[in-house]
Amino acid sequence: MAQSTNAQYHHFVPQFLLQNFSHPYDPPRKPGQKSKRPKRKYKKGMYPGDRVLRNVDLSADPPVICEKSIKRILGNTDMYRDTSQPTPKQQQHIEEMFSKFESSASIIFRKITKSFEQHERGLWLTRAERNVIRKFLFILKYRGSTFHRRFYHENRESYEAEDRELLNDYMQAKGFLRPIDVWFDNLKTIMELEMDPEKQWINELPKKMFPMDAEWFIYHVEGSYMAICTPAEANDEFILTDNSYSIFEGPNCFGTDEVTGKVEGTGWVALHEFAPISPKLMIVLRSFLFPSPLEDEVAAVKSSRDKFRFEAYENVFNTPLQSILGDLPVRKASNNYSKIWYGIYQSSIKKKKEPSRITGGIAK
């Protein structure tokens, strides 16, 4: 695809998250220099005080640690430019949607980091806030460089992912001309999705976007619970990589594609997924396949969980559930509409409409 003369740098990791990992740029003084010149433009377009990240330059031999502006890292030029639109402004409609979505999400993430900074024992989130976080974490994964490479094609013939036949059928049925148009439409659909408490959205979403990716989003939202973790050692910190939000812990299988000859993933189960939001905070999504002592006191719940665990994991990988993070000290957050009665969760029905709230602590 030709690069526009009005090219823009698009981040796949939002700057409000990069800000959490950044520090002010403080260029070293030259030998014998007594004072700094704050108005002078320094190398790489950075001024003293600009927010920068320490970056490992793997292109150097050996790799070196340098500094880069948060304005020019973890992104690419025109990643989300929709060249099918007639005007430069319209071509940026996905990036503009990201901007608005990030603005609402940043308020919630600031609430999380502030709670940690003030050493609060717990954190209350409304269900609407929880839904924004879940959508945001999926978007972080789905908007990244891996999926940009997957969909960045001008025609169906050049699309090579393992779901190419399904995508081809979907494009023909919906009238899409380019795989990238499907990607843009999927991103737009997820950002605009209204997640009603009755969960009717689960039935409707596969009708509105590429069904395979819709099912993946549904599992991402419904198939795990969210925990917030911090390093056990005070001097340790979490780091960012270009695929930070696509990393999972769990088994996976690979096979060789007969058409392309490429080795690709053929099956996996994400037992834990990760989203670093600051050097000291990591959101961890823990699979509901793990036993839950309180919930499993209800026979029907335990039976359903055991059945799903067998079908999704034990029968596929021919082994009991195993995880290197199986003993992670986290638990499912409580809420304001359920109570523990004789060691069993009991849900109560509200007579008046109030926002559901979810609370949890921070694990080390």
In short:
The chain has 364 residues and is α+β, with helices and mostly antiparallel strands. It is built from ten helices and 17 strands. The protein has one domain.
Question: What report would you give on this structure?
Answer:
This is DUF4238 domain-containing protein. It comes from Cylindrodendrum hubeiense. It is globular and about 75 Å long. The relative contact order is 0.11. The strands form six sheets. It has a five-stranded mixed sheet with strand order 8-11-12-7-17. The chain is 34% helix and 20% strand. It is built from ten helices and 17 strands. The chain is of the alpha+beta class and 364 residues long. It has one domain. Helix 3 packs across helix 7 and helix 8 packs antiparallel against helix 9.
Helices and strands in order:
Elements: E1 9-11, H1 15-20, E2 23-24, E3 51-57, E4 64-69, E5 75-77, H2 88-91, H3 93-117, E6 123-126, H4 127-142, H5 145-151, H6 164-174, H7 179-192, H8 201-208, H9 211-222, E7 224-229, E8 248-249, E9 252-256, E10 263-268, E11 272-278, E12 281-287, H10 299-317, E13 334-335, E14 338-341, E15 344-347, E16 357-360, E17 362-363
Parallel strand pairs: 7-17
Antiparallel strand pairs: 1-5, 2-3, 3-4, 6-16, 7-12, 8-11, 9-10, 11-12, 13-16, 14-15
Protein name: DUF4238 domain-containing protein
Biased composition (Basic residues): 31-44
Region (Disordered): 23-46
